[in-house]
Amino acid sequence: MTRRGWWLLLPWLAAMSQAQPLVQQEVSLLLAEVAASGCEFYRNGGWYDAAAAARHLRDKYQYLQARRPLKRTEDFIEQAASRSSFSGNAYRVRCPGQATVASRQWLLARLARMRGG
User: Fold this and answer.
1) pLDDT the model gives residue 74
2) pTM
3) Residue 15 predicted with pLDDT over 80
4) Contact indicator for 61, 76 with CB cutoff of 8 Å
């Protein structure tokens, strides 16, 4: 590659280096919301409290990051926090006084709120 060619990669490399800390920050905030939610999370046939759900999702996030860093927080939600890697069944969330919803929906709503949407 020519010197000129390397310069063309700089904006892309800069964007990638900035994306990782943002994804890590947003995932950390989402996991903190899960842990503090007081909701129950359904996976693989059982309901788990919010702290157990946050630990499980943190473990899945760390596993994915070790294999191939995620570029977007939505990738974390889709690849780790929406369904079981084991059974393929969707995760669900039930919060006091609210209807049970898919974890994907619940997490995307919180992400939008965190981003000011």
Assistant:
1) 97
2) 0.81
3) no
4) yes
**What interhelical angle do 103-114 and 3-36 show, nearest 10?**
110
As a whole-number percent, the residues of the chain with pLDDT over 70 amount to 84
Which pairing describes strands 92-94 and 46-49: parallel, antiparallel, or unpaired?
A: unpaired
User: Is the CB of residue 54 less than 8 Å from the CB of residue 31?
Assistant: yes
Helix, strand, coil percentages in the chain from 3-state DSSP, rounded to 5: 60, 15, 25
| Rounded distance between C-alpha atoms, residue 103 and residue 43, angstroms | 10
Task: Using alpha carbons, select from 45, 57, 55 the residue that is nearest to residue 106.
Answer: 57
As a whole number of angstroms, the distance between CA 82 and CA 104 comes to 5
**At which residue do the structure tokens 């939008």 appear?**
112
pLDDT over threshold 80, residue 19: no
Of 24, 37, 4, 60, give the one whose Cα is nearest residue 107. 37
Which residues does residue 42 pair with via DSSP β-bridges, in sequence order? Answer: 47, 92
What are 45-100's pLDDT values in tens digits? 999 999 999 999 999 999 999 999 899 999 999 999 999 998 999 999 999 999 99
